[in-house]
Amino acid sequence: MRGGDIQKGETLLTKTYMQSLFQVGYAALMRLKWEGEKLLKENGRLVEYVLPSGLVDHFAAIVDRFPKIGVLVQEGDEIAETNVQWAHPRALEDLALMEDFLIKTRFYVRLAKQGFNLDEKRIEKLKDQCTHPASVDDINIIVLTTTALAQSTLFGHLACDPLPEVAAKTFLQTVFVHNIHADDPHTVDEDKVAAFRDTLLGTSMAWSDEDRASLEQLLKDAVANLEHHFGRLNLKEKIDWKFTRGLLLQ
Fold first, then answer.
1. How many C-beta neighbours within 10 Å does residue 110 have?
2. What's one Pfam family here (predicted)?
3. What are the pLDDT tens digits along the chain (250 aa)?
4. CA dihedral sign, ordered 124, 126, 129, 131
5. What is the rounded CA–CA span in Å between residue 200 and residue 116?
6. Taking the model in full, what pTM does it have?
7. What is the rounded distance in angstroms from the CA atom of residue 176 to the CA atom of residue 232?
């Protein structure tokens, strides 16, 4: 075979290989888009309600006509959650990130429905019962899980009903470890979180390995939520709840 024929053969093989890769990647991207659309069709605004506000746009980008992935852009020494550039997926790693995001979103929806007995209308009703937070945009799966942790710790049942202010303060005094030094930030008692985890794992959800991994991350997010919003409060003094976030309050 002459050298020219070999070169043509290599070019043809390369084109065929790249075309196959494109077809596989495009098929995978469309599958993710259709899975997102199915999740939205079956659950309506519940999907929006469980996602933290910064992630709603990421879900919308996946189900867009031409799916995109959001990339946080660094400016200076910081990366702002709102500083997102949207781009078409270019690598298998992008598809993997989008799939992981959908796995987590599906888990959030299932936990809300099967673990907390919530749907779109019930969350809207919870919002109407709340004094804080004032906006439904501040209600998401992390806040719902934190409130369920409070209900479970105080009253022994799984629910996301808004707490009276007295009960909320009692919960914070219970869930935080006692500090030796008064000025130290509060940290969450891991035993309380472990007991709550066991309660959730005892529900009727069919807990897969993916579910368990998603739950572990969600519980870490709930702990971070508590410590961020309430960890610096002086729990011996009156709390001005209107300046707080992170729990559903009456």
1. 16
2. DUF6178
3. 444 565 655 554 445 534 544 555 667 788 889 899 999 999 989 999 999 878 998 998 888 888 888 876 655 554 455 577 887 787 788 888 889 999 999 999 999 999 999 999 999 898 888 888 877 778 899 999 999 999 999 999 999 999 999 999 999 999 998 776 667 788 999 999 999 999 999 998 889 999 999 999 999 999 999 999 998 888 888 888 887 889 999 8
4. negative
5. 9
6. 0.82
7. 11
Amino acid letter for position 63: V
> Angle, to 10 degrees, between the axis of helix 165-175 and the axis of helix 209-230?
110
CA–CA gap between residue 92 and residue 25 (Å, rounded) = 7
Here the tokens at position 103 are: 């796995």
The DSSP code for 133 is S
Distance of CA 148 to the CA centre of its chain: 15
| Cβ proximity of 106 and 39 under 8 Å | yes
Query: Which residue, among 198, 186, 110, has the nearest Cα to 152 in the 3D structure?
Result: 198
Report d(CA 195, CA 191) in Å as an integer. 6
Residue 71, phi then psi, degrees to nearest 5: -120, 125
